[in-house]
Structures are given as structure tokens and as C-alpha cells.
Amino acid sequence: MSPQLRNMVFAAAAALVAGGSYVLFTPVPATRSMAELRDAGIADGQKFVLVCPERLTAQTKRRIEKVQPGLLRPSQGYAHVGRVADCFSFDGGNCFKPADFSSLVTNGEIIVSSLRRDLVGVDASVADNPDGGESDAVDDGLQYAANCEAYKCGTYDAGDGLFPDGACTNRNRLWLVPSPCMIPNCWTAADGGWDDNAVVDCRFLGPWTESDGGAHWRGCNTGPAQYAVGSQCVPTECSIVAGDDPTQWL
Known about the structure:
By secondary structure, the protein is mainly beta. It has two domains: 3-177, no CATH class; 180-250, no CATH class. Helix content is 10%, strand content 27%. It has four helices and 13 strands. The chain is elongated and about 60 Å long. It starts with a helix and ends with a helix. The relative contact order is 0.18.
């Protein structure tokens, strides 16, 4: 990235993307406009969709609710979130193979325009603009796991047209991505809370398939969504930050 652009971003985290190690940068201050970033050369990078596990903040949840109303559960604190990003390789070429973005070409640096950590003085109620153009709506979401995925703009199918053609025209966009895991809906206690002894209609096949070919009850534990069967399976993240109570965050 250009020296001018580097002066407008902050190294916020490290992540593994498509098998490569990257540093994720966010604009500073949070009120930095997209016009400034464009003038500094952000468009010289390779634009793509970055999907990372995040611990959701109030700002992130507000923005997801605007574009995907009703998908977040009231107490949900973790999710896979897709954000438009720009990658700059150290050799000036593409960061990922253009065909499928599944593998790394070279090491580089990634700018995530919608992920802004310095929220001092920012009005978080400013409406996001999902159809393009300028937007000062920002959030301070935090990638809590190092493993992220990269997808080509306009071709990633997250279901229900969540990443339609042209979505990457707005670098401030973000989406809730279908979870890779499911958990039995054990919120069956009399007070509406979690009951670890509950047995509900959510079992798992795959490695847990019973000898008779039936699905296996694994208790009130998460498992891969691809193996989950039953009417009481709830989408959830596969892991959370140590110290958090899963029954409050999932």
C-alpha cells in the first residue's frame, strides 16, 4: 500500500486467510471517509469478501439488523461476519488466486474499511448505506479467531443472495454469514434458561452416526452444521472466547 494510505490505517489484528498469514488494518480515525481512502490508493488493492468469526459488539449487531432483520438472536454474541476488504501483496500482484480465492498467492496486508476501532465522537446511529455511496456508519467488531476465509466479490454464495453481484461496490458493507455449527435448543428451563439435562430434537450424523444408521444425541453441545439433523437445532458459533458463558452468548 502507498505511504499515504499506510498513514491512514492501524494494524488491529493478525489472521490466517486462505493458508497465509496477514495483518488486518482498520482506518483511523473512525471518521476517516471513504473518499480519503480512495484518494490514498485503497482501490489499488485486490477487493474481496473477508469472512471471520467475530465477537459481536452493539454497533455490529445494529448494522446486521439493518440489512438482515431478525437473523440475530437477542442474546447472540458470536457470529461469522462477511466484510468487504482490500488486500495488498508485498510484490504488487494479487494476494489470492483469481479463480476461486481458495489459496494464497503471496503474503500481504488487508484493509477492512468497515472495521473501525476508534469510535470516539462517532454517532453510531448514523444509517448504513447498503446500496453504495458514502457512509460514516462504523463498528468496533473484533475478530476473535485467527482463521478467516476469502471469497471473490459477486460470486460468494452465502445463501439468500447475501453477497449479490455488485455488493463489493460499498466497502462499508457487512453481512451475517450462515454459521458452520449447530447446537441443540436446550433453552428449555422453566425460567427460559439453559437446561443441560434437556433432550431435544437435534442429533448429529457423520462421525457420530449410530451403528443402525441413525443420528446420535451428543448432549447440549455444538457440532458441525453439515451433520446436524432435527427441528431443534439452532445455528451457533463453534467456539467462544475463554471465560464467556456459552448459555448467555450462543
